[in-house]
Structures are given as structure tokens and as C-alpha cells.
Design brief:
- The complex is a heterodimer of chains A (324) and B (292).
- Chain A is of the alpha+beta class and 324 residues long.
- Chain A folds into two domains: 168 residues, no CATH class; 136 residues, Cyclophilin-like (Cyclophilin, Beta Barrel), CATH 2.40.100.10.
- Chain A contains four helices and 21 strands.
- In chain A, the strands form four sheets. A seven-stranded antiparallel sheet of chain A has the order 7-6-9-4-1-12-11, with no helix packed on it. Chain A has a seven-stranded mixed beta barrel with strand order 13-20-17-18-15-14-21.
- In chain A, helix 1 packs parallel to helix 4.
- The longest helix of chain A is centred in the C-terminal third of the chain and has 22 residues.
- The radius of gyration of chain A is 20 Å and the shape is elongated.
- Chain B is α+β, with helices and mostly antiparallel strands and 292 residues long.
- Chain B folds into two domains: 78 residues, Gyrase A, domain 2; 203 residues, Cyclophilin (Beta Barrel).
- A seven-stranded mixed β-barrel of chain B has the order 5-10-8-9-7-6-11, surrounded by five helices.
- In chain B, helix 1 crosses helix 2.
- The longest helix of chain B is centred in the first third of the chain and has 17 residues.
- Chain B starts with a strand and ends with a helix.
- The chains are: A alpha+beta (324), B alpha+beta (292).
């Protein structure tokens, strides 16, 4: 054992880059909601980018270290403290055996990634250490961390260095007014043209029901559906479809009222129509949104989505080059 | 069957709607397409998901462009449409305690979210499907086998399609607003689909009963889930067996003690043969299950 949870915070889970390949039987990818921040946290302490870290939402945990370690915290602006002394974010720092890592109040964003040199050691389940709480799978006993939990840390091949840091211009955090670029599609044809325009014109706010499964939004006008006789098996509500797969990032609108964007712990399918999909480049951003954040969905085409994806990859490459 | 409808789900998914409405023909075409994608071993494809009347893949657009991926899928559709609808699969018996106290307790807590707050889910479903009593409903529900036409929503949850003429299929709306709680192993129903909730959690399907037989075990301790944690695959066939409280308790104790062995048998399913005489074909399937 190398760390002990003194206080787990609101919801702290073990996550890596996820568990691909089992979505066809309802086991989602899981993994860090902000994958960029998770990768960078690992790079800062010399880990493989896919090493397991702790993802803490809104409130930081309190962790006692039972051996010396190098740690880095990225993602949300949740200032780390070692025995009460504030440490920089996006920067690696040392912790001595017996010292306690705690956190100041959240300044910005929603989810912080706490990487420990070597990586958190929990069993690999179906190829990943990520926690999928709904299925009680992975992580530590398939659940969020609790007071008194002990976690091992793997040995790092090469010595980790403290003081590695990512320049401010290469960090990413949400702005005051968030735009989620969205490719219309899937069941977009089920709503009227006017309703489609409204969806992208309206201002939405993140609802309190926002978690690793999905983010719900409120405040825009309800959808208007193109009238039809419901197909056999779909159910009677105009927002119902014959239960189908849900893409990650897909925007479903049950009852036509409140859009839900599915995230890393997505339900893999169901019977609600979807108007489109948030592009892959903006998925990390969703993981950093607090409830009530004003948000707009911005209509983009596929070429824009691919270009945005390339930009994200090149940002990651610049971080890699900086820390190499 | 008409041509499928394709749509990009962002830059990482392609969604293929084989048909707007549910049918076993649409399921088989979707399944053939997913098999063809799997066999083609496209670089960058990480998820291949069959669904009731649709399918979806997730791919890495850095390895194959979305346009090329779409072209490849459309090529596969042509051959999938021609492939035979024959499946080597299993028939599995699932004991069900209908109208049980646990789903009843849960449904009473969520009455204000239901179409008919004065009835229970099973009473309501019986009435709107023109069945005279709960007994009649159980008879209709458990009288013929069901086809697993999709696995998902949450880990290992089967969507089940009743293997009878469309006119005899049980249909119910989903709850007006989803519940925040559903007991683990609840047998539910929404639209034309049955399901078994593999884990406790939110749900919008009507609740008819509960099975003592686990279908998902992330710890892989249960004997028949040691090889893989989820029991069901698309194409499996299910036969419900109504049981009472005593049999439920006995089965639950057997599961707890590691003695429970589900009744299941390998079987070949042919869609053409099934359609020739549905009732006779179902009797044949049950004959395989019960060894007569």
C-alpha cells in the first residue's frame, strides 16, 4: 500500500484511458472524462499516458502517503496542498512518506486528475483499471473511493522528476461561455427545420443531473417533431425510437425537452431519439463543466470536426515535446 | 428490405438504421453487417455494436477517414442483405417470480410517474393488452420464447423480442418519467421489448416480476459467468418459467451457495423455418430445451 484515503471528497474514482471493445454488451469505455488532462498528469510524473490516476469531481480528496512519491494535478483548478502548503497545478511535486495531500476549494472546471509516479495499482479488468460504478466494475471494487481505502502504486522504470510543468498556454480549461460543437445527424430528421434552428440558437445551462454517464442541459425551447405514425416497437412518445445504439457524445432528448449528452460511462443504447453528436474534440471540455454553466450547441460539419480533432492532437504533441 | 440509412455520430461513429420499425429480418441484417465488419478487421475500428433494428461502429478517424469508413460499410450491406438468416445459438430458461413483492414495493414508490397510478404495472399491462387477469397475462408472457435482439443500455442487459405474430406481441408504453430505482434482475417491458435489468438502477420499463438467476457478475464468481461476466449475446433465445415464492427462495439460496445451474441448450435458429409455422417452431425449440 502506498496511499490511504483519509477523506474521499465528493466522488473520487480510479481512471485510465478506458476499456474499449465491450460497448456491444453495454460495458462503456469509462476512463477519464477529460482525457487530455489525464494524459498530461501522467506525462508530468513520467508515467505511460494510459496509467491509472485518481479523478476527483468538485471536491478534492485527502490522501495520506505511506511512501515517498512524485505527484501532479491537472484538469480543474483545484489547488493541491502538501501538509497544508499550496502546490502548483499542472506541475509535478514531491510528497514524503507520512505527508498528507489535500486540496483547496475548486476555482475553475469540475474534475481534477491526480497522477502518482508509477500509476495507481488496481486489478486490470477487461484491459483497463478504470472504474465503471454502474456495473460495479474495475477500479477499487467497482466503486468510488471511501474513507480508509488503501491503494498501491506501481514501480516506475525510470526515476520521476519533480518540477516538470506545462506552460499556461498549453493548459485547457473552459471559458465563461461554453460552446459545444455538434454534428447534426442520427435522428435529426425527426424534428422540424424551425426546431432544429431553435436548438442551436437557444442558450442552455448545465443541469444538476450531470455525471460520468451524461450531462443534462436545461433552458432551451422544447423540440417540435415532424408528425408520423410511430414505427412498430418504438413506443408512443414522438421522441421514442426502436431502441438503438447511442454514440459517445450523442445528444438525446427524452420527451423533446432536456438534451442529455452521453459521456464516458454512457448507457450504450436505448429508445430516445438523438439530434446529433458533440464532436470528439469537445468531449474533454464537457467533463470540466459545472452545473449552471451557460452553454450553446454550435452546428458544425464533419470537416470542421476532423480539423478540430487534429488541432487537439497537435496540442497534445506540443505538450509531449515540452515535457520530453 | 429497403436500403439502410447511414448517419455519422460525430467524427468517431457511424450509425446504421436498417429499418425504422422492429422485425427479426431487420435484426438479422444488422447482425450480418456487424459480423462482416468484424471479419473485415478494419484498422481503427474499436466497437462493433449490433442493435434491434440497427447497428453502430466506433472508429478512429486518424486511421481511416469517415468517408472511407462509410464506403466500406455500404459495400458490406449488399452482401449482408443476401446472407442466410440462420444462427447457431442457445436457448436459456429463466425462472420468473411474476408480481413479486420487491418490484411491487418499488413500483408503488413511483406511482406518480406512471400512466395509471391506481393499477400496478402488471395489472395495467394486462388490461391494455386485452388480457382478462394477471394469470392470463403471465400465460401470454411466458407462453412462447423470446429472442435477444440487443444487449446493452447497461452491462449485460438483454432486450427481448417476443417470438409470436405481431398481433399477439405484448406492447406497453414506458413510464411517463423514468424511475430512479429498479431492483436488480427485474423483468421489464417497454414498447414491444422485454428486458432483464442486470444491475440495480434507473429505468423506464414497466416491471412485471423478478428472476433469482444472475445474468451479470463483474467478479465472475457465479459458475456459469466464470468464462465471461455477461450471460447474454444477441441471438440467444429465452424461455420464461413462472415460479412462486418458494421456488424463488430455493433458487436464490442455490445461487448463493454456488449450486445453481441454468437450464440451457445449443440450438440452431432459422428465420425462414420460424416464419413458416411460428407456434410449431417454438414447440420444437422448447423440445430442445426440455429434451423431449
Amino acid at each position: 500500500m502506498a496511499i490511504r484515503i483519509v477523506n474521499p471528497g465528493l466522488s473520487t474514482t480510479v481512471q485510465d484511458l478506458g476499456r474499449p471493445g465491450y460497448y456491444n454488451i453495454g460495458i462503456p469505455l469509462s476512463g477519464g472524462m477529460d482525457r487530455f488532462a489525464l494524459r498530461v498528469a501522467n506525462m508530468l510524473v513520467g508515467n505511460d499516458e494510459n496509467a491509472a490516476v485518481l479523478e476527483a469531481v468538485f471536491l478534492g480528496p485527502e490522501i495520506e502517503f505511506t511512501s515517498d512519491a512524485i505527484v501532479a494535478v491537472t484538469g480543474a483548478e483545484l489547488p493541491p496542498k502538501v501538509d497544508g502548503k499550496v502546490q502548483p497545478t499542472w506541475t509535478s511535486f514531491p510528497i514524503k512518506k507520512g505527508q498528507v495531500l489535500s486540496f483547496d476549494y475548486l476555482k475553475k472546471g469540475a474534475r481534477a486528475y491526480i497522477a502518482v509516479a508509477g500509476g495507481i495499482d488496481v486489478p486490470v479488468v477487461l484491459g483497463s483499471r478504470s472504474t465503471y460504478t454502474l456495473g460495479a466494475l474495475g477500479g477499487l471494487e467497482g466503486r468510488k473511493l471511501q474513507k480508509g481505502d488503501g491503494l498501491g502504486v506501481l514501480k516506475l522504470g525510470k526515476p520521476a522528476k519533480s518540477g516538470a510543468t506545462v506552460p499556461a498556454m498549453l493548459r485547457r480549461l473552459p471559458s465563461e461561455n461554453v460552446e459545444l460543437r455538434t454534428l447534426p445527424g442520427l435522428y435529426w430528421h425527426r424534428i422540424t427545420e424551425q426546431s432544429g434552428r431553435n436548438f442551436f440558437e437557444d442558450s442552455w445551462k448545465v443541469a444538476p443531473e450531470a455525471d460520468r454517464i451524461g450531462y443534462r442541459f436545461r433552458g432551451g425551447r422544447p423540440l417540435e417533431f415532424v408528425p408520423r405514425k410511430q414505427p412498430f416497437g418504438a413506443g408512443s412518445d414522438p421522441s421514442n425510437i426502436v431502441d438503438a445504439c447511442y454514440p459517445y457524445g450523442s445528444v438525446q432528448v427524452p420527451g423533446g425537452t432536456e438534451p442529455i449528452v452521453l459521456h464516458r460511462d454512457a448507457v450504450s443504447g436505448g429508445g430516445y431519439m438523438m439530434v446529433g453528436t458533440v464532436i470528439s474534440a469537445d468531449m474533454d471540455l464537457i467533463g470540466q463543466l459545472q452545473p449552471h454553466t451557460p452553454t450553446k450547441f454550435v452546428k458544425v460539419d464533419l470537416a470542421t470536426a476532423i480539423k478540430a480533432r487534429r488541432d487537439r492532437l497537435s496540442l497534445l504533441d506540443r505538450v509531449r515535446a515540452t515535457l520530453a | 428490405m429497403k436500403e439502410a440509412r447511414y448517419s455519422f455520430g460525430g467524427d468517431e461513429h457511424i450509425f446504421v438504421e436498417v429499418d425504422e420499425e422492429m422485425s427479426l429480418e431487420a435484426f438479422f441484417k444488422g447482425l450480418s453487417m456487424t459480423n462482416a465488419v468484424r471479419e473485415s478487421r478494419f484498422k481503427g475500428v474499436s466497437e462493433i455494436c449490433p442493435a434491434n433494428a440497427s447497428m453502430q461502429i466506433k472508429f478512429d478517424p486518424d486511421q481511416i477517414s469517415p468517408e472511407d469508413m462509410l464506403k466500406e460499410l455500404k459495400k458490406l450491406e449488399t452482401s449482408a442483405a443476401k446472407s442466410e438468416s440462420i444462427l447457431k445459438t442457445r436457448i436459456i430458461e429463466i425462472p420468473v417470480y411474476y408480481n413479486d413483492p420487491w418490484t411491487r414495493e418499488t413500483l408503488m414508490r413511483f406511482r406518480e410517474r406512471h400512466q395509471d397510478p391506481k393499477s400496478t404495472d402488471i395489472e395495467y399491462a394486462a388490461r391494455i393488452n386485452n388480457l382478462a387477469s394477471i394469470d392470463e397475462f403471465v400465460k401470454a408472457h411466458s407462453g412462447s420464447p423470446w429472442f435477444v435482439s440487443m444487449v446493452g443500455f447497461v452491462a449485460g442487459l438483454p432486450f427481448l423480442y417476443q417470438m409470436v405474430d405481431r398481433s399477439r406481441q405484448i406492447e406497453v408504453p414506458k413510464y411517463l418519467r423514468p424511475r430512479t430505482d429498479t431492483p436488480k434482475l427485474t423483468v421489464g417491458h417497454g414498447g414491444c421489448f422485454g428486458c432483464i435489468y442486470s444491475v440495480r438502477g434507473a429505468g423506464g420499463y414497466q416491471m412485471f416480476g423478478i428472476t433469482p438467476m444472475p445474468i451479470y457478475d463483474p467478479n465472475q464468481k457465479i459458475s456459469y459467468l466464470r468464462d465471461f461476466m455477461c450471460l447474454f449475446k444477441p441471438g440467444d433465445i429465452v424461455k420464461w418459467r413462472p415460479i412462486g415464492r418458494e421456488a424463488y427462495d430455493a433458487a436464490a439460496a442455490d445461487v448463493e451457495a454456488g449450486r445453481f445451474t441454468p437450464r440451457m441448450h445449443n440450438v440452431t435458429f432459422s428465420l425462414d423455418e420460424f416464419h413458416k409455422d411460428i407456434d410449431a417452431y417454438n414447440r420444437k425449440l422448447e423440445g430442445v430445451l426440455y429434451g423431449n
